[in-house]
Design goal:
Aminopeptidase, about 40% strand
């Protein structure tokens, strides 16, 4: 069953009509959810994609690609809670890594162990802690900054 789902996953460019479904997922999973305006502006400036299964959006990613310096920054990435732990996040990360430049950065909440483990599976390494990065109901919380150098993977 899981393989059938993964085989039916489509990753495509986010479109304006996708934002309500994206926001629904964002509000379910994010500690510091982005408002619709941020998604709209980032989709206009950067690469925003959605993950669909049978035309239902089950995840999304937003990445800024800076070709002039061969770097990328994964700005936001999520999979709907009911679609987690079946390989969709891995498929999305793999897609984004292939889209990105040689060096990739991202922030992740320091207590988000499932996400940290997913990134480490793709050889992201911890660089440092970014203090007070996330706004939460309980005040500011720290993020881990992770990075991946694709050239290092190719040489291993």
């Amino acid at each position: 069953m899981q393989n059938q789902i993964i085989d039916s996953v489509i990753i495509r460019k986010a479109e304006e009509q996708d934002f309500e479904q994206i926001l629904n997922i964002e509000n379910q999973v994010a500690i510091d959810p982005w408002p619709k305006e941020i998604f709209i502006s980032c989709a206009a400036l950067y690469n925003a994609v959605v993950v669909t299964v049978e035309q239902v959006i089950v995840g999304y990613g937003v990445v800024a690609i800076y070709n002039s310096i061969d770097e990328s920054h994964i700005l936001n990435l999520a999979v709907a809670p009911s679609w987690q732990q079946i390989g969709i996040g891995s498929k999305l990360i793999y897609y984004l890594i292939n889209l990105c430049g040689n060096k990739i950065f991202l922030e992740v909440h320091k207590n988000n162990l499932p996400a940290i483990n997913l990134y480490k599976k793709f050889n992201f390494v911890e660089m440092y802690i970014r203090k007070n990065y996330y706004n939460t109901k309980n005040g500011k919380q720290d993020a881990l900054v992770l990075s991946l150098e694709k050239l290092n993977i190719a040489q291993s």
